Amino acid sequence: MDVNAAVAAAAAIAGVLTGVIAMLAFRWSEREQKRPTRTSLHTDPVLPPGVDTVLSVLRSSAVVLDEADAVVKASSAAYALGLVRGGKLSVEAMLQMARDTRRDGEIRQVELDLPRRGTGRGEALAVSARVAPLGSRLVLLLVEDLTEARRIEAVRRDFVANVSHELKTPVGALSLLSEAVMDASDDPEAVERFAGRMQIEATRLTNLVQELIDLSRVQNDDPLEDAEPVRVDELVAEAIDRCRHQAGAKQITMAAAGHVDLAVWGNRGQLAAALGNLVENAVNYSPARTRVGIAARRVTAPGGDMIEVAVTDQGIGITDKDKERIFERFYRVDPARSRATGGTGLGLAIVKHVAASHGGEVTVWSSEGQGSTFTLRLPEAGAARDRAHQRPDLDGLDDETGPSSPESSPYEPLHSPEVLP
Hints:
By secondary structure, the protein is α+β, with helices and mostly antiparallel strands.
């Protein structure tokens, strides 16, 4: 009996000890699970206070990497540029920079050309990457997109080169012609012929310099100077008068149609130059005995009514490839024809900038062999009619016998009231 009691007591004590040990082991396991480990510190790093806020307002693309080169934080711009894919930095050169900076703590900066992924184009993405340590374990990568800046710089270089070339041509011609005049001093007919050529080259040089001045004026970001209500019919009449001689030499009929009570708000000189360039181009690129039409109309737009002035010709037309570049400075669809007509390649660039500075736009429709239509779209002078009682130059907007009436119009009306495509 005593032996059995001793065995039972020993068994009871062993059971109690086992339970205590199990409970202690369970508690110790829970504590170990809650304790941060080295691995968890690496996989779930914490940004220093304020860094997240600073990165969110940076204009540059920002990426933060941990010790394992995993992306801890990345801005939306970094994803848009394709720098981060699948939680990893996708540019090997930048990844190597981050590793070197993590090793020695030195700040590094480099400019790279990255391929545009998913666009199918061969153009490179120019970026400037700067890597710096962020605390003891993290690395910060800032990437600035330089593509647009490089494009603008290339445009400036091309502009300077083109200006130099365009100025060199008439200046060189004048130099040669002056030498020819000196050598032919005893031949009156040759002197007269060379002098006529000199006048042509001098006129071309003058036009080029003037268009360069006009382009520089309309390219600035200053508010419009001397803005006023400008009647569209007066702009059309001035553009036709400007090209009347060239059109007459080629037997080209110029006709205009549209509402006569339209007015736009802007700089009269710039608007006249823009519309004049469109009409002059239409005449120069049209075959003999064809027709150039100018139509104006009011269109409704969400921000207010707009005035559309369309210039239509029956010329050679423009290819799809050239349509993308015709508004570039010094670009010519037909260089040979431009040389023959004295064109500088700046006319459409001036039109584009004038339209933009006036809050409008210029568009083109064209088909090879069927002609082209350039449409200048400008905001209407909303208060033009209200100003008519205070401004004498607008008194004839609604007067049937005034200068805006069809009877006194200096140009022939079209059979169709619209020539828009």
